[in-house]
Specification:
9 strands, four-stranded mixed β-sheet, alpha+beta, Nucleoside Triphosphate Pyrophosphohydrolase, globular, about 160 residues, three-stranded antiparallel β-sheet
Length: about 160
């Protein structure tokens, strides 16, 4: 049922953002533990597993947005500066959307997050054991970071 309404909700949000904001900006993190497992989340309102992150609010820096989103979605508190991996044009979401992706190795997670209305599941996964529903863009960013591939200009 949730998936049937996904395209409509996505269009509604982006129509709102088109008029409320000239461009949408996001920040996501490739959060790696000491075994190079990556932290992924599963939203209640879109299909697949994703890197944690979200929109940059007015008056907020990319780094501040990343720190806020990591805490909200994963109970992850930054303990050191994240490293910018790249900025990506996310045209499959909107012709106005750009996402800054950071590599996060210095953090503290006091406990795994509880599922809620927004994030229904989360966890750390080895790169060769990602959930089957991990999105192509998420897989691409993980491969770039862990395999040293150069970042592409677009999300996919």
């Amino acid at each position: 049922m949730r998936l049937r309404f996904e395209p409509v909700l996505t269009r509604m949000f982006h129509l709102y953002w088109r008029f409320a904001r000239g461009m949408t900006l996001g920040a996501r993190g490739v959060v790696l533990d000491d075994q190079d497992r990556v932290f992924l989340i599963k939203h209640s309102y879109v299909v697949g597993w994703h890197l944690p992150g979200g929109g940059v609010e007015v008056g907020e820096s990319f780094a501040d947005a990343l720190a806020r989103e990591l805490m909200e979605e994963g109970r992850i508190a930054l303990t050191g500066a994240p490293v910018l991996h790249g900025i990506f044009f996310n045209s499959h979401v909107s012709p106005r959307d750009h996402v800054a992706v950071y590599v996060v190795r210095k953090y503290r997670q006091d406990r795994p997050p509880e599922p809620n209305r927004e994030i229904i599941d989360s966890g750390f996964f080895a790169a060769d054991e990602l959930p089957p529903e991990t999105t192509p863009g998420t897989r691409q960013r993980i491969a770039e970071v862990l395999e040293g591939r150069p970042p592409s200009a677009t999300w996919r």
